[in-house]
Description:
two-stranded antiparallel sheet; 18 helices
Amino acid sequence: MSEKKSFMDRIMDKIDVIAGPMAAFGQIPFVHALVDGMVAALPVTMVGSLFLVLYLLCSDGGLTATALIPFMKPWADDLALVNTLSMNIMAIYIVVAFGAEYAEAKGFSKTTGSVGALFAFILLNYNSAAPLANVLTDGTVELTGQSGFSIAYWGGAGLITAMIAGAISINVINFCYKKNIVIKLPDSVPPAIGASFSAIIPYFFITLICWGIRTLAGINIPELVGSMLLPVLGAADNIVVYSIQQFLSALLWMCGLHGDNITGAVTNVFTNQWILDNNAAFMAGTAVADLPYTWTPNICRLSQWVSSCWPILVYMIMSSKKLPYMKPLAALCFPPAIFCIVEPIMFGLPVVMNGFLLIPFILTHTITGAFTYWLTSIGFIGKMYMNLPWATPSPILGFLASGGSVGGAVIVFINFAIGMVIFYPFWKAFEKSELAKMNEDVSGEQTETELNAQGA
């Protein structure tokens, strides 16, 4: 008689069935190039996140009203600058690396691809240069007479533009090269100059397309996405709309987009007002359980990342014996993750565009989000009326933002446990796939070494 399988074994069998399609998704040239581009930008993202942690610790209002490391307070703004020039414009680094990787996959120069992708990104971002301004001490605004470009969509919110820019530019260049729609110079011309001239016509077509989209048609891609979400995420404080927001945010993240920034552009308009209303009601003597709004800006911090990135970080550490590269990556990701700075994990492992982790990531965000909202609505978690800094560690935030709610701290660990359970079978499938890749690479290197030895 065959041995009866446990529930987890049956789950693993189901995961094995879909493991093939999940692995195949990651091998699509566009997806593979985008993932490699994100990994290539990891050092910049990692350094930026560490400097952000330092800034939070040594600035007034970063994590606490007064700096936790006061002797570094004079350098707080300088530390913040590193974060601005790294994480806040990471779309630039990703689009350059993505363009290079995608160009290599298509079989032409990585330099041509990266420059073309960056050019397309710039064209899709701007239809004019905005006047620069100074804010005077009395609060008035003075125009300087100079013009500049806003970097509002150079960070996480600009990743969707980076993806579209890379897709347009690389495919246009590839089409022109295959159809021989290029300027050819004599063979005696240095290769670098020849390659530059051969890119002129493809770049011209890239200009027509991207300039046409942004300048002639007036389409602002991030704003367009936000306007599409507005009817879905209207100003309604209920568990259904909140769960949809968490689902869409997770889905966008897995597509390589900064889901929080994109959905937040819609929801923050009213959630910021709701926490002000909660605060006013509390100051007027209303009990926490009777405050008017459940959905406040930081309620997501009690569920989304603690149920996804924290379990992933634990599993990275647990898998480090089999997959050695996981150990240093986990060590670097750990300090930022405490403060829910998740970009190093999301773009470093990476989690985004990862076919194995897509389903559990979306599930944990949606399920734990709805669960947390429900527990808040029935009073197990106190409704938030203090808008603490977003990077406050989740258990502390949940406790303090609701005026000392023990449930606000406890729910963080409950959601973490839920995430550990949901991610387990999918992580094991991912681990198995990574081991197979590693063994394949080792076998390939051994075969090449043997062939070289025979040739010698």
